[in-house]
Every structure is written in structure tokens, then in C-alpha cells.
């Protein structure tokens, strides 16, 4: 979470991309910065810390699903700045303000990405395995809470 003069002006988080075991090493991130607050480094501070935290875990890929993608220059720019590239486009999947909107999918590697098969922990990490997801974390937090912690507390 980003604070500006005592008000929340941005936040970001990461969640599991899909619940199926095949996708256990892929996260989807979301970042939001209040309208009119762009260009102040808020999004960069949020996204850089989120990526750093996610790279400490067993995850290998991070996706960004950008609504109204081609008309969202700020989101495209910040994701490109942090190494995301366009992986695909979903046409006319959103309807907003009287028109159909496309969604862009952007992707970046976390750590070694797909260059290795086993996790850097040398085993199937509990946090990324289906059984690990079903169990309550020791600290009681969901992955999205853990990755979306306030920057003010760091």
C-alpha cells in the first residue's frame, strides 16, 4: 500500500494464477494507483517491492492482466519497465462505457523462471503445492495478504 499525505493512493498484490496444480508456480499481480497520482514513482515503488518479495518464494512466472490494455498507457509502461512483455490479447472480453474492451496479458519471469525444473528449495515447496494451499499458513495469512503487505510497514 502506498500512502500520500495520509491517504492511500495505491496498492498491489499477487495471487495464484489458477487453482490447478499445473499453475502452482505462476502468480497474477494487480497494481492500482489513484487517478491523477501517476508519474510520482508510486507504481514503481509498489511493483518493485512486490516482485522482490515474490522472487523470494518458489514462483517462476508473474502475469499482469491489463483491462482495456491498449488504452492503458500507464499500466503498459510500468510493466514494460519491470521486464513484462505482452504475451497475448483477449478481444472484447470487457464491456465498459458503451463499448467492448480488450484485455492484454503481460508476463515476466521470476528468478530463474522456466530455466530450471526443480524449485530452488530442491523439493516441491509446500506453499506452492496443492496440499500446501489447502493447509492454513503458519502465520494465518493468505498468499495475497502476504504479498500485498503495506510498504509503510517494510
> Mean of the pLDDT scores?
82
Radius of gyration from CA coordinates:
16 Å
CATH homology-level superfamily: Gcn5-related N-acetyltransferase (GNAT)
Element order: H for helix, E for strand: EEEHEHEEHH
By DSSP (H or I, 4+ residues per run), the number of helices equals 4
Q: What is the helix content?
A: 10-25%
- The number of distinct structural domains comes to 1
CATH fold-type name: Aminopeptidase
Adjacency order of strands in the biggest sheet: 1-2-3-4-6-5
Sheet-strand content, in percent, reads: 25-35%
Unreliable stretches covering 5 or more consecutive residues:
129-142, 149-154
The count of strands amounts to: 6
The appropriate CATH architecture is 3-Layer(aba) Sandwich
Give descriptors for this structure.
154 residues; alpha+beta; Aminopeptidase; six-stranded mixed sheet; 33% strand; globular; disordered C terminus
Amino acid at each position: 500500500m502506498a500512502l500520500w499525505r495520509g491517504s492511500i493512493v495505491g496498492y498491489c498484490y499477487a495471487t495464484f494464477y489458477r487453482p490447478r496444480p499445473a499453475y502452482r508456480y505462476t502468480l497474477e499481480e494487480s497494481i492500482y494507483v489513484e487517478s491523477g497520482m501517476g508519474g510520482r514513482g508510486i507504481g514503481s515503488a509498489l511493483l518493485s517491492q512486490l516482485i522482490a518479495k515474490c522472487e523470494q518464494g518458489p514462483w517462476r512466472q508473474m502475469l499482469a492482466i491489463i483491462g482495456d490494455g491498449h488504452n492503458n498507457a500507464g499500466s503498459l509502461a510500468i510493466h514494460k519497465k519491470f521486464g513484462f512483455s505482452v504475451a497475448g490479447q483477449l478481444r472484447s472480453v470487457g464491456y465498459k462505457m458503451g463499448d467492448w474492451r480488450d484485455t492484454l496479458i503481460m508476463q515476466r519471469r521470476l528468478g530463474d523462471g522456466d530455466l530450471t525444473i526443480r524449485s530452488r528449495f530442491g523439493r516441491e515447496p509446500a506453499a506452492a503445492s496443492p496440499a500446501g494451499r489447502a493447509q492454513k499458513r503458519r502465520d494465518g495469512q493468505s498468499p495475497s495478504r502476504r504479498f500485498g503487505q503495506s510498504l509503510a510497514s517494510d
